[in-house]
Amino acid sequence: MIDKRVDTIDAALSGIEDGSTILVSGFGNAGSPIRLLEALIDQGAANLTIVSNNAGEGEFGLAALMKAGRVTKVICSYPRSAGSIIFEELYDQGKIELEVVPQGTLSERMRAAGAGIGGFFTPTSAGTLLGANKETREIEGKLHVLETPLKGDVALVKADVGDRWGNLTYNKSARNFGPTMAMAAKLTIAEVKTIKELGEISPEHVVTPGIFVDRVIKLREEQ
Amino acid sequence: MNTALNRKQIAWRIAQEIEEGSYVNLGIGMPEMVANYIPKDREIVFHSENGLLGMGPTPDKEQEDGDLINAGKKPVTLLEGGSYFSHTDSFAMIRGGHLDLCVLGAFQISESGDLANWATLNNSKPPGVGGAMDLAVGAKQVFVMTEHCTKDGQPKIMEHCSYPLTGTGVVNKIFTDLAVIDVTEEGLVVREKVVNITLGELQNKTAAVLFEPKVCELRAPIL
Q1: pTM score of the predicted model
Q2: pLDDT tens-digit profile of A11-70?
């Protein structure tokens, strides 16, 4: 019987190794798997590369993981936001590497990884600093840059409802990077608010089909 | 007498330009104000890059939902007919040319429509691009909303941008506190200017050649 449900955070995060690239869902705090990120501190993996739209805020979730010194590189579109103090401190001290990627390119590079596409040409960033040193091609009269797939060893995804096959739904704009990241990692771990029986999520409403998901853990909402 | 438009009036002027039935993305910050001035008889669908179509106004405090935010990470609402989707779909809308219009802020704009709005030459802060490069390249039309000059009186419209570019040749129309300017193959064409400034004065505040075949008065109600 397929059962991707796990009972403990330890079981959810087991096997994540030092040096992993971890895709972290969320746009600001909406859809950020805060509990899983904080549990990753206890799990112990270090020297991590984090792929996420933002670089954390306050001292919780992603920022807490950074503060614990586990993150050596961040790949994101927008590291600065109100309260991204921990990241900014580490960046100023030269303790964290930053790769800035346009938001759509970030998402599409992960989609490419998830879909087995070896790269794609896009006009986004062509002729700019972020497109410098990239292979270019003129397509239909427009300059494009070559972007390569961005694959995760692990994806930590916050969803809303899950089932034992790993089917997921999301809540409102907390969906953001979740579905794309779920397909782009070797090991996808989903945090959900509710677990339902098979069939209770209408097949018409499944957003992330279970094939993309390896583990599902039910966690209470953060207070 | 100072007849320059204030920011609300620039927003109002842009709103008049948006056609019925348009799908529109308003950049974070000043451009968000444009939504307040859409004529009541026009149905416009607002897109937010974090996965919303049919974005509605700011909710009352007690209706705020951390999972329902806009690209500026502020609480919003969703109108009837609205939808939620992933970042990959959202940026397919942007990059695939499905948005009719995007309104963006600017540090600098060049006479050939280059836009610089994501980074300055100050390297003390970590850079962040967000979705700006995708929007600049992908939307069918790009309007810029900006003050005509910087706070210390330097022109923001120039022959070539000195700040890092967001996109090359992407801007279609510039709305400032002093003028409405089209970016054309032939160069910058002034369509409207406020009444109490001469064309000579406007040219002096602009570091690129302005063409003036037929200039109308730029007016807005008191706001």
Answers
A1: 0.95
A2: 999 999 999 999 999 999 999 999 999 999 999 999 999 999 999 999 999 999 999 999
Spatial separation of the C-alpha atoms in residues A193 and B69, rounded to whole Å: 19
The structural domains of chain A, with segments of one domain joined by +, span 5-116+150-218
Amino acid letter for position B118: W
Each residue's pLDDT tens digit, B82-119: 999 999 999 999 999 999 999 999 999 999 999 999 99
> How is chain A split among helix, strand and coil, in percent rounded to 5?
25, 25, 45
Q: Report whether pLDDT(A223) > 50.
A: no
CATH topology of domain A5-116+150-218: Glutaconate Coenzyme A-transferase (3.40.1080)
ipTM for the predicted complex comes to: 0.94
**Pick among B118, B134, B170 to test the A interface (most A CBs inside 10 A):** B134
Q: Are B88 and A91 inside 8 Å of each other by CB?
A: no
Q: Which domains does chain B have, with CATH numbers?
A: 7-33+99-217 (3.40.1080.10)
d(CA B191, CA B179): 7
- CB-CB under 8 Å, A31 with B88: no
| Separation of alpha carbons B46 and B25, rounded Å | 6
Please state, in angstroms and rounded to a whole number, the distance separating the CA atoms of residues B165 and B168: 7
